[in-house]
Amino acid sequence: MMNCQQATQLLSEKLDRPLTRKEKMAIGMHTTLCPSCRQFGKQMEELRHISKSYTKGEVPETKK
Hints:
Elements: H1 4-13, H2 21-33, H3 35-55
């Protein structure tokens, strides 16, 4: 079983490269059981969205 440090590392890497099937399965299992890492993954995706919008000169829509 993956620990939270490994999970957050993979969630960060997921933004830069495709994960292997094994990595996807491991992160999927971990985030199913760990609400903190699941939230971290959502926050990373939101930051990516905001960053992309900013570089394009757009005003990003924030989720409430």
